[in-house]
Amino acid sequence: MTVLKTSMRNFLAHKGRMALSAVAVLLSVAFVCGTLVFTDTMSTTFDKLFAATSSDVTVSAKGASDTGETTSDDGKPPVIPASVLDEVRGADGVKSAEGTVFSTSVTVVDGDRDNLSPTNGGPTIVGSWNGTDARTMEITSGAAPEGPDQIMVDADTADKHGLELGDEIGVISVVGTHTARISGIAEFTVTNPGAAVFYLDTRTAQRTLVGGSGVYTNVNVTAAAGVSDAQLKKNVLAELGGGYKVQTAEETAEANRKSVEDFMNVMKYAMLGFAGIAFLVGIFLIVNTFSMLVAQRTREIGLMRAIGSSRKQVNRSVLAEALLLGVVGSVLGVGAGVGLAVGLMNLMGLMGMELSTDDLTIAWTTPVTGLVLGVVVTVLAAYLPARRAGRISPMAALRDAGTPADGRAGRVRGAVGLLLTGAGAGALYLAGAADRAADGSLWLGLGVVLSLLGFVVVGPVLASGVVRVLGAVLLRVFGPVGRMAERNALRNPRRTGATGAALMIGLALVACLSVVGSSMVASATDQLDKTVGTDFIVQSDSGQLITPQVVEAARNTPGLERVTEYKVLDADLTTPDGKTSKGETINAADPTYVEDLRTETVAGDLADAYRPDSMSVFEGFAEEHGLTVGSQVKVDFRDGRTATLTVRAITSDDVVIDKGAMYASIATVAEYVPAGKMPLDVLLFASAEEGRQDAAYRDLKAALDDYPQYTVRDQTDYKEALKDQIGQLLNMVYGLLALAIVVAVLGVVNTLALSVVERTREIGLLRAIGLSRRQLRRMIRMESVVIALFGALLGLGLGMAWGATAQQLLALEGLNVLDIPWPTITGVFVASAFVGLFAALIPAFRAGRMNVLNAIATE
Question: What is the CB neighbour count within 10 angstroms for residue 400?
């Protein structure tokens, strides 16, 4: 009880000095709890939606997706004959059954031909208005569609695009474009995460989405009273026999849940990983805080020892303070985490993914996880300072000798740090020298961990040399004030090393990812310049296949020399060694594709692969199965017959674009796959006539203006799009890393603030002999800047080493260009100096306000 009282008194006496450490714990716990609440809320939202939109039993085509997704190779949804509806109605236990038609392989535009599809990755769904949808939708204005000239839209999409009753809507599918006017607006009675939903009457939906009548995509079945979904499924299967997919509501909901589970898990664990980095950075802050508090209370600790307190009691006293800090910071962090989750939900709403606070989910495990993590991390971080406090002898403490200096411990620390750093460097070397990316990635991970630990441990040793160099370059110009700032940073290398290490971790990751991202862009750009011979690429950024109407429009564009179609087909390949490779893909293209993409071969001529009954294979596949030019491969097309194709070329694996592709001509594939089963094009390539590139570019864009789901890009556009995609990903990662950097800045602030308190008497004496307030503040700012730059140098150097090694692994996948983004690296280094200046504002201001006489009188 005495230990607890002492700890509580010390905690309250130093509450101002504890505040920043508590904020670090708060931020880290808030990020963890916010992530858990946010992802749990997303899961709840989707679970409610899937449960509400699933009928008791659903009957669909055998080839339909378990999730109801209707994208297929031919652009049409898999269908079942209308006769199935009558058969289902005749099954035992059926209360009612209704045939529906819907598709997600569509684009919807307004009267100005602007795309109404979600920009958040959500689906665009066009279907027939039916009883199952009526359970989750309420018509708030107008009426349901009753004829071919009417369409109903969900309220979220209407609000987002300013749609009103009577507005013209165009539905573009593989069948063609159907135009109708808005007859009604319906609002979801459950949360709609971001889909755009449009409804037609059943007959119009059949013609618009499938191109005929007498078929459905689904039959929704409702069970009679007292009949379970499982029993109803058995009854329906007994009535229909085989050939159809029959699912209960639970099975449909579970399939939908799994379809979004991977996305949510990636988001969840990525955000938790960045929270872990923030916790790691926070450890340095807490270690520094308690180390300095212990040093400042040396005499107090000596008195406690002199009156009978044991080492364990002193140790427990410091750990009890850490426990209080962890509990306070964690409790506040849990509350802040809920607020952060709500903020993330609002942010997602701005991006188009609607999440309602009505579905806010706070599992009991969330606050428990936050509290346990926050408390455990804080107590562990305070263990070493507590152990040092317990080792102070009473006499040394009463003489104010401070914590015992242990030169041997410093030498051991330096040796261990160098050993870890050397081991990390060796692992990074082995990663760069690996022959396979999978093997190298293991060495890379080990090298990152060991080198990071090594730099953290050896940081105090490096601080002495690096700070002196930075002082000579940056601080000496400030005269005596600069030299004093340098000596202050060197006074306690362990403290400087720990403070700099906190900033080092975040900046190392920033530098590493910058190098990797820049190298990926540079490598892809280099490959495009070397291999792509086409002028224009037509594709859908949302992944939609290219409809025949678009191909026809492109072919009719004036000024184009050639248009190349490109399809992907699934097939099982049986090689002469008797082995069958299932689930392979054949890339079918027009023969002009050899001009559009100059792919390197290790044997044969790729142009020959486009001859009748011919194909190419990639180098790895040929080596695995002993294939050479002239070998014959049996190709069993998923939607066609089995062909025997002759290998005419073997392509190199040392490429980026179409790596691992196996080519054949569309004409060859058409001999074995029926026209009705032939997939639509994935991409379309076009090249202009000599000297007409600019005009052809404008004309091709104009020709496809009625199809906003497709984008026409020349090579410059394509490079910019690639750069933007990687840049957006990096910006998101930098945003998440900003939390760790904020915690590191708090560490610099706390270190300086406690250092000012520690040097109160010294500051008073400096003021007494003529140091002005302005000079004092400058000294503290310069000390902060040099600590920040020390951390930045270590972090950027370490991160560039990691990034360069990662690029060597990417080179095994064809990304051969190492590109160091020096503007980014330089900008981060300069920004670190401003971080140092910012961190010193409050400590420098407080130091300047000290009363000189009171400061001198301080013991």
Answer: 10
